[in-house]
């Protein structure tokens, strides 16, 4: 290939696509981080305790996103919060509002 010949469009286009995808992934990660911080804040209020004292429970956002309806999601979160003595309806409603439109964060597949 001579120094004057144009570069094929493939690699440059691929690099741009990767940058766009990276920006999209960072945006989704930021949304997820903000959601997790919000969840921790709400759980400390619901359980009336410090973050370190929150009962061991895992609200898996990807699991919720896999579910087919808000009713199913709400039932799952209510099940996780079964030992909470405060009303959980506002938290569940807020959580469902916040995850609406979010994307699952899939882990990269190894080749």
UniProtKB/TrEMBL annotation:
Instruction: Quote the InterPro entries the UniProt record gives.
Output: CPI-17, CPI-17_sf
The superkingdom listed in its UniProt entry is: Eukaryota
Subcellular localization: Cytoplasm
Chain segments annotated as coiled-coil in the UniProt record? 26-67
Checking SUPFAM superfamilies in the record gives: Myosin phosphatase inhibitor 17kDa protein, CPI-17
One cellular component GO annotation, for this chain's record? cytoplasm
- Is Acetylation one of the keywords UniProt gives this record? yes
Q: Which UniProt keywords apply?
A: Acetylation, Coiled coil, Cytoplasm, Phosphoprotein, Protein phosphatase inhibitor
Q: Which GO terms describe its biological process?
A: innate immune response
Q: Name one Pfam family in it.
A: PP1_inhibitor
- The reply on keyword Coiled coil is yes
From the Swiss-Prot or TrEMBL record, what is one GO molecular function term? Answer: protein serine/threonine phosphatase inhibitor activity
Q: Which Gene3D superfamilies match?
A: CPI-17
The role this protein plays is: Inhibitor of PPP1CA.
The UniProt entry's sequence similarity note says: Belongs to the PP1 inhibitor family.
Q: What is this protein called?
A: Protein phosphatase 1 regulatory subunit 14
């Amino acid at each position: 290939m001579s120094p004057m010949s144009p570069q094929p469009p493939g690699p440059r286009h691929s690099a741009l696509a990767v940058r766009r995808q990276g920006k999209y992934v960072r945006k989704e990660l930021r949304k997820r981080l903000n959601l997790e911080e919000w969840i921790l804040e709400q759980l400390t209020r619901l359980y009336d305790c410090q973050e370190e004292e929150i009962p061991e429970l895992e609200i898996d956002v990807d699991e919720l996103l896999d579910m087919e309806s808000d009713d199913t999601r709400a039932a799952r979160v209510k099940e996780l919060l079964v030992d909470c003595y405060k009303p959980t309806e506002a938290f569940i409603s807020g959580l469902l509002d916040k995850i609406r439109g979010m994307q699952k964060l899939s882990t990269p597949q190894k080749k």
